[in-house]
Amino acid sequence: MKQLMAALRTTAVLVVLFAVSGLYNKHPGGGDGEAPKRPKFSPGMMPKKVGAAQQQGIKKAQEGRPKGAETGEDATPAKPKNQWEDPDFADAMYDMHRFGQMGDGTMDKTWDGDGLGNGAHKPDSTVPGKTKFPPGTTKAEVEGWFKDIAANPDSRPQPRPHGDGWVLTGTRNGITMVVTLDKDGSISGGHPVSGPGVETNPRAN
Predict the structure, then answer these.
(1) Half-sphere exposure (CA, 13 Å, Cβ side) for 49?
(2) pLDDT tens column, 32-68
(3) Which residues lie in Low complexity bias regions (predicted)?
(4) Which residues of 157-195 are buried (b: 16+ CB within 10 A; e: fewer)?
(5) What is 153-195 written as a DSSP string?
(6) Closest Cα partner for 142 from 185, 172, 182, 105?
(7) pLDDT at position 30, please?
């Protein structure tokens, strides 16, 4: 009888151990083994009350966009600095007490020529070898372009021979031009180089 009771107790202990072992390996997901991994977050998991703009912000944050960055279009690139702001031109600028002003007779020479072979770049110029502004261009327009290029050239100003001024280049309204400055900064001349409607008269034979 004692042996039977001992056998029953042993059997009961084994049953309890197997039951505990089964509970240890069982998980809420219904399977055995390791617990299921938590799924990765995605914008689609957000509640429906989160709008499209918010989901777009979350998506960009996941892609490495800095926290707090705007979700709109990228900012406009910064405008390049004015070429004259280079410290190399500090001394030259000090001498330009007429910086950007039209020199005496400059536009008359540019438009009609000075009789010495200079200028004569108006649209209907017939002077051989002269590059002409496009048809319909006015004298006032050219003066405005020259002043704008003088104040803010597209490329680094180049010194004129003998150090008596500067040669500038710039494109305005699609027309690339060369503008010259005297040492005092006044505009001494200019002419078109290329662009829609720019033509060059044939040279004389």
Answers:
(1) 0
(2) 555 555 555 555 554 455 556 656 665 655 565 554 5
(3) 48-59
(4) beeeeeeebbbbbbebeebebbbbbbbebbbbbbbbeee
(5) -SS--EEPGGGSEEEEEEEETTEEEEEEEETTS-EEEEEEEES
(6) 172
(7) 47
